[in-house]
Amino acid sequence: MSALLEKVRGVVGAGNVLADGDLSAWEVDWRKRFRGRALAVVRPGSTAEVAAVVRLCAGHGTSIVAQGGNTGLVGGSGPDASGTQIVLSLARLDRVRGVDAANMTMTVEAGCVLQRAQQAAAEAGLLLALSLGSEGTCTIGGNLGTNAGGTQVLRYGNAREQCLGLEVVTASGDIWHGLSGLRKDNTGYDLRDLMIGSEGTLGIITAATMKLQPRPAALLTALATLPTLDAAVALLSLAHAMLGPGLTGFEVMNAFSLDLVRKRFPALRQPLPPAPWTVLVEQSDAEGEAHGAAALEALLGAALERGLIEDTAIAASIEQANAMWHLRESITLAQAAEGPNIKHDISLPVSAIREFVVTTDAALQRALPGIRLVNFGHLGDGNLHYNVQCPEGSDAGEFLRHENEVNAIVYAAVSARQGSISAEHGIGSLKLEAMTKHKSPVALAMMRAIKAALDPSGVLNPGRVLPPPARQ
Ligand code: FAD
Ligand code: 2HG
Ligand code: ZN
Questions:
Q1: Does ligand 2 come within 6 angstroms of the Cβ of 332?
Q2: Pocket lining: 167 vs ligand 1, CB cutoff 6 Å
C-alpha cells in the first residue's frame, strides 16, 4: 500500500479511497475509446479535503485527473495507462449552496449533477440556462472544466457566459475563493475565465456561482423538414428576424442521423417523414402559450411560403416537445449503438457551413467510398457534430484506422474556413495532434506559459489539452 494513499485515507476516510476491484466506471471514458489505469479513485467530501489531497499528491509528485460525471467526449476525464495517477472524483461535493433570487444567481458545488442544479433553480422560479443531452449525469464542475455548450447557446451563451464566480483548488493545494456573484469586476486578469475550459489542467473547480434567468412563460417546439442545408441557414436567419431573443434552440439533423435513430430505437416515433434535413426550433416566449404559438406559426408559415421548409410538426404538449428533443438527443446514443465512429465537433461561420458540408462530404466520399455522415448539431451556433461512421456492413472497429486520414480532410477544410476543431467538447487526449496542426505556435506558447505559471510541476491532468512541444 503506497505511503501516499495511506495519508490520503487519513484525509478523506478509507471508504473514499478506491484502489482495488473494478474501477472501470472511472477509468474508461463514455465512448469506451480511452481505457486507463488509476493508482486510486479518491472522493473528497469538502473543498478543504480537495486542497489537502492536492497538497499530498503534489508533495509525492503524483498527478491528478479531476473527474465529474465522466461524460466527456475527448478522453480528458480518465487516468492515463501508467497506473500512477489519482482520479479525483468531485461526486461527493454535490450541494447546492444557495440561490440568491434577487441577484439571480446560484452557488453550486462542482460535483452537483447539472439536472439537479436546473431543478434547484426551477424551484426558486428561475432558469439555469445550460442544457446538454448528458445533463442527467454531467456535473457543473465538468461543464465549466470543458466550457460546455449544448442546446441553448444561441440565446444564453455557453457555460463560460453563465458563470460569475469560482472556488478553485490550485496546483499547490491553495484555495482561491472567487465565488463572486458580481456582473462587473475588472480587478486584474480574469482568473475565472482562465479556469473555465481548462479541462482540469490549471486548477480544480470545487464550486461555482452561476447566473440565472427569468423562466419563460411558455416553451414552444417544432420540427421542420427541409430540402437543403441552404434552406436551413435561410430558416435560421428568418427565425432570428421573426422571433428575436425568443429563439432559444435551432438544431439541425441530416437524414442519416435520423435514419440511425430509426434503426437503433424503432420505438421512438418520428413525426415527420424522412427528408434530407430536419430542423428542431425552440422558442421561449415571455408572454405565454398563445402568443408563443402565434409567433412560431407565423415563422413556419413564412418559411413554407418561401419554399424553405416542406413539412412541419408543432408540439401540442410538453410530452410532444420532450419527444422531439428526445429524438435529437438520441443521435449520439444511436451512433454509439452502431459502433465506434470518428467524431468532429467543429464550428464555422454560419455563412460558410453549406459550402463546407458539400465540399467535405465529397472529399470524404472520394477518399473512403461508402462512409456514412452523421451530421447534426447546433446550427444556430455554427457548431456541427460532423461525425463519420464506417460504410454499411464493414467492421466499425477496424474503420478507426482511417481516423487520421479522415481528420486531416475535415480539419483542413475547417481551418481553411477559419473554423474551430473543437467548438464545445474540448481537446482532452483526442485532439492533441489537431491542436498541434491547427492552433498557432504563438497561441500554444502563451498557453504553455500559463500552464507553467499555474502548475509548474505538472500535477494537474498532465498530457491533456497541450501537445508536448516536441510534437510541433
Ligand atoms: P467529465 O467528463 O468528468 O470531465 C470533463 C473534463 O473536465 C475533464 O478534462 C476533467 O478533468 C475536467 N473536470 C471535471 N470536473 C472538473 C472540476 N471540478 N474542475 C476542473 N476540471 C474538471 N457537451 C457539450 O458541450 N454539449 C452537448 O450538447 C453535449 N452533449 C452530450 C451528450 C451526451 C450523450 C454525452 C455523453 C456527452 C455530451 N457532451 C456535451 C459532453 C459532456 O457531457 C460535457 O463535456 C460535460 O461538460 C462534461 O461534464 P462531466 O461532469 O461529465 O465532466
Ligand atoms: C450533442 O450535441 C453532443 O448531442 C454530442 O454534443 C455530439 O455525439 C456527438 O458527437
Ligand atoms: Zn453538441
A1: yes
A2: no
